[in-house]
Amino acid sequence: MLDQTTETDVQAETLLEVNNIEVIYNHVILVLKGVSLKVPKGGITALLGGNGAGKTTTLKAISNLLHSERGEVTKGSILYRDEPVADLSPSDLVDRGVIQVMEGRHCFEHLTVEENLLTGSYTRKDGRAAIAADLELVYDYFPRLKERRTSQAGYTSGGEQQMCAIGRALMSRPETILLDEPSMGLAPQLVEQIFGIVKRLNEEQGVTFLLAEQNTNVALRFAHYGYILESGRVVMDGPAAELRENPDVKEFYLGMSEEGRKSFRDVRSYRRRKRWLS
After folding, report:
1. pTM (two decimals)
2. For 205-253, how does the pLDDT look when each residue is reduced to its tens digit (9 = 90+)?
3. Cα-only R_g, the chain
4. Which class for 176: exposed (0-12), middle (13-18), buried (19 or more C-beta within 10 A)?
5. CB 113 within 8 A of CB 145
6. Is residue 120 within 8 Å of residue 169, measured between CB atoms?
C-alpha cells in the first residue's frame, strides 16, 4: 500500500465526480438509485458489491455505454475535471483520457495479441515512434503478452486476455481507467498478478483507477478508497484500510465475523440490509 502521506496527496484533486445519478433501463427498470462517488487523481478507487449491485451499470453510465443496452441516466450529473460529460460519446471520453476495460475481457479474437494492443492507439496522433515506445512499455508490464504477441487472441488464456484488454486500454494513454471485474474467472494467483500490475501502473505511471470488483478481499488490499453498493445504492464508503476493519464488511463481504468465518448463506438478507441502513 501507499504510505499515509501519498494517500493524502492523491485525494487533493478530484478527477471524476458522480452526483446522485439514477439509471433506468427500458424506461421502466430502475437500476441505480442516487449513486454518488468521487475518484481522486492518482488513486485506486474500488466499487464493491455482489452480483447485481449496480457496479457495472455505474461504470457504463460514466463511460456513456448505456444507450447500446437501452439504458439512460435520468437524474444527477457526471463530471470529469469539473466538466459535464453526459453528452460526450465514448470516443470523446477516450480523447479526454477516460477509457473502460469491459467485464469479460472482450478481445478481438481473430486478431493477434499485438494487433489487439495496437487497436488501443487508433485515436492517437503523436506518431508511430511514440506508439511503438508505449507498446514496449506495455510489454514491460505484461511480459507474457510479448511472448504471445503473434498468437491469435482467441486462443490465449483468460489471464492473458485480461492482460491484453488492460494493455489495449493503456495504448490510448489514459489518465483514468474504468476497470470492470478484473478478477472474474481467473485463478487466485493470476488475480494477485493482475492487481499487482494495476498497483504498479498507478504508482509508476500515475494512472487513476476506478475498479468494480466482487472480490472485496483483494480489492481492499490494493485500493485506497472504497464504495460498497447494494441494490443500486451506496451503503457504505471510506478509506480501504478502514473498510477492511469494519465489522459489517468483515462479516458480509470478507466472510469473517467475531465468531470466525461465516458463509453468506448463514446470514439472512434482511439482517444485512437492516445493519447497513440503521
Report:
1. 0.85
2. 999 999 999 999 999 999 999 999 999 999 999 999 999 998 888 887 7
3. 19
4. buried
5. yes
6. yes
User: At 7, which amino acid appears?
Assistant: E
Determine contact, residues 135/215, Cβ cutoff 8 Å. Answer: no
d(CA 100, CA 83): 19
- Cell numbers standing for residue 54: 449496480
Name, in order, each residue with C-beta under 8 angstroms of 22's C-beta and a sequence gap of 6 or more: 30, 32, 33, 34, 35, 73, 74, 75, 76
Specify the pairing of strand 71-80 against strand 44-48: unpaired
Task: Return d(Cα 271, Cα 278) in angstroms, integer.
Answer: 10
Strands 208-213 and 176-180, bridge-based pairing: parallel
**108, 116 Cβ separation under 8 angstroms:** yes
What digits encode the pLDDT tens for the residues 8-66? Answer: 444 469 999 999 999 999 989 999 999 999 999 999 999 999 888 999 999 999 999 99
Residue type, 96: R
Return the C-alpha cell found at 276: 447497513
* DSSP-derived pairing of the beta strands 44-48 and 225-230: parallel
Angstrom distance (rounded) from CA 91 to CA 241: 35
Beta bridge partners of 257: 260
Three-class DSSP category at 177 = strand
**Beta-bridge partner residues of 99:** 177
Whole-number Cα distances in Å, 8 to 3, 18, 74, 204, 228 = 9, 21, 34, 17, 21
Sign (positive or negative) of CA dihedral 185, 188, 192, 193: negative
